[in-house]
Fold these 2 entries.
Entry 1:
Amino acid sequence: MIKYGELSTKKANRNFFINTLYHNVLDKLNGLEVNVYKDRARMYIEFLDNDLDDILNRIGKVFGIHEYDVAYICKSDIDSIKKCVLDACKEKDFNTFKSIVKRSDKSFPIHSSEMNNVIGGLLLKNIPNISVDVHNPDLFVNVEIRENNSLVYFNKYRGAGGYPVGTQKSALLMLSGGIDSPVAGYLALKRGVVLDAVYFEAVPHTSLEAREKVINLSRKLLEYTPKINLHVVNFTKIQEEIYKNCKDDYVITIMRRMMYRIMERLCVKYDTKAIVNGESIGQVASQTLDSMMCINSVTNYPVIRPVACLDKLEIIDISKKIDTYDISILPYEDCCTVFVPKHPVINPKMDTCIYEENKFNYDELINEAVDNINTIKIVKEEDYSSLL
Ligand code: ATP
Ligand code: MG
């Protein structure tokens, strides 16, 4: 049983939210024998016993779910509920319990507190050597009495939270091989944003392994969204021109301005509404507020920086949780790390940027890069192996 959580506050959009979540759940459970149905308050998945662990794992990665429970379902009459509670509890190993009845269907004739006594009495009479403990029981026996059916469940699982992916429009994630950007992508998906990723590579200065790493990171993000494409930008010529023509301490700033210009063009090309990246205030020279202002000024698109205010250790915690950390720390160089000046400017001046970057015809090179995007459709690991 799935509880929707935060989306229940969005009254006008409720059906849209629930339908989006429903499709995401179906997508996530693809390949399993399940029956999924929903009403305004809950979604239900009927499944085969053997698939339980797999389903719990998959559902834990679907955004828009606040809580989920493994529930036994029965008709909403007193005899069915009693039988269901007893059967379910007989499978459990416990010494103490507490019954928590929630009567959502107010037409059900027995009030919650009285129903708690009924359930308590039933269990004490039929299961030997158990007692009630209202403070610290081994087992919480949750009974939810609803109009169409009633549910009995024990453990509550905390869902991934956020909004269902697809309840916001699309954005483009700047995905490098580092630690921060996959975390930024995960956090944007959590708000319901549909994402495609963009990776800037500078072959032959960057290796194919570096690209493979970004593909693997994208595949990790695919666990939280029904689909993701990776757009690979050939950044070699632009980068070489920058290093050939521009002042050493400005090369990173200018490189990032070029990236943002390309990102804006790709937002137009793919009809996406925002740029998402893994910048974090003060982390490196190009992420001071002065640098951000100077770099950001080349685009009018919103730039969302989900990890802007997190410490590196906090970002690392999330990257471990979403299992991207071990991939991110692989040592392949990406285009930002290939040519790093000794003293990158931390308070770049706009005039200097404009002067320096006008030393070559970047418009033409940007057009060429945008026209020659290589788009990789990311597929799940198991599907990928079957393609080989
Ligand atoms: P990460 O920030 O992902 O750990 P990083 O620290 O090496 O990688 P930074 O130099 O901090 O990257 O760059 C800041 C952000 O710019 C990245 O989080 C990412 O969103 C974007 N970015 C940097 N390099 C690339 C690239 N080669 N392709 C796509 N996006 C990039
Ligand atoms: Mg970073």
Entry 2:
Amino acid sequence: MPASKQIAIYPGSFDPITNGHLDLIRRAANILDHVVVATLRHDTKHPLFTTEERMEMISQATSDLPNVSVDSFDGLLVDYAQERGARLILRGIRAVSDYEYELQMALMNRQLSKELETLFIPASEQYSYLSSRIVKEVSRLGGDVSALVPAPVSARLSAKHSSL
Ligand code: ADP
């Protein structure tokens, strides 16, 4: 039995964090020693929230989980994982449609680093329809997203959309 700790990186845009992401983080934190939620700094998806805002929202939402920390990274995920001493990448799978892209990424990361393993965790059924993109869309149109994201995120979404 190796004595090394199981540290996993959970990378993503988290623009913003949703209850689906949180569910995955909680479940992963239950079985792993440490989970680092890592937001992408230079995201080509043109995020609505800045990296700092996204990190703040994740920190607030995970403050009750002692073995979860929040960070941001740039460049190759495999390099960042090595820097953090992590040998696991965590990704959520909502539907079969997620799988093709996720598998491609996992195989590419394996190609880049043999040390790194990708761990897929299936989304809980009640969150399998939930994405940051749909939350932003509904909120932008004035819909209530309070059941889909933590309360501070919901407040920030309203503030963001009223200032745009
Ligand atoms: P990315 O831009 O990397 O896809 P996201 O923030 O959209 O970043 O997602 C990060 C990870 O979280 C991905 O593995 C995604 O499949 C997973 N994820 C997103 N929404 C959910 C959800 N509702 N339940 C479980 N996992 C999710």
